[in-house]
Specification:
alpha/beta, Rossmann fold, seven-stranded parallel beta sheet, 9 helices, 7 strands, CobQ/CobB/MinD/ParA_Nub-bd_dom, P-loop_NTPase, Chromosome partitioning protein, DNA_Partitioning_ATPase
Length: about 210
């Protein structure tokens, strides 16, 4: 089982959107996948309750209680963890001890960029990170093409010498589908297929699967 933690210390940067999108993509590839919600806001759990039986199955895990962290069914292929905001201290170490990769989404705003800078600096002191046992992938989320904010976020990536694994554009379809317990991977219209392609670079680095995703 490979465990992927979706984390940043700032709320509203797109953690839950990233978590449900990845889980849905994996479910559609017939992987046995679970989504663990470690955030007290329960956004991922609420989304899973809206998901109909006709959609590929994503197992639901409630990890809001720290004592529940690590509890997962056997024979899972992938476990996606939606981390809480303000992730730090022992809670951060506990969640990171469970994961093989961290995906950190951030929006092109001063607050997201500043928060992400501090988050990345903080987790460098955690043993598994320091020993290189955890991959860290950044996602530029809700980006508007040719905007001044997109230039700011590019400057940030250049400064930390780490480019984002994927650039995800701002689209209202994400929230529209989420209200139904769905993601873009639950639809196959031509215009949505183009949006799915933006996630391909992230899927390529996280998932060892040479077959076509779309």
């Amino acid at each position: 089982m490979k465990t992927i933690l979706i984390a940043n210390q700032k709320g509203g940067c797109g953690k839950t959107l990233t978590a449900i999108t990845l889980a849905s993509a994996l479910a559609h590839k017939n992987y046995k996948v679970a989504l663990a919600d470690a955030d007290n806001q329960k956004s991922a759990l609420h989304w899973l309750k809206q998901r109909g039986e006709q959609s590929p199955t994503i197992l639901s895990l409630d990890w809001r209680n720290e004592k529940s962290i690590g509890d997962a069914p056997k024979k899972l292929d992938y476990l996606i963890i939606d981390a809480p905001g303000a992730l730090s201290g022992e809670h951060a170490e506990q969640l990171i001890s469970e994961c093989h990769a961290i995906v950190t989404p951030l929006q092109p705003s001063f607050f997201d960029i500043d928060s992400t800078r501090r988050f990345l600096k903080h987790i460098q002191d955690i043993k598994r990170i320091r020993k290189g046992k955890v991959e860290i992938h950044l996602i530029a989320n809700r980006v508007k093409a040719n905007s001044s904010s997109s230039k700011n976020i590019q400057d940030f990536f250049e400064k930390i010498e780490q480019q984002p694994t994927a650039w995800i554009s701002e689209r209202s379809i994400y929230s529209q589908l989420a209200m139904q317990g769905l993601t873009i991977f639950d639809r196959n219209q031509k215009n949505i297929l183009a949006i799915q392609q933006q996630w391909q670079p992230l899927l390529d680095v996280l998932i060892d699967d040479p077959t076509d995703w779309f």
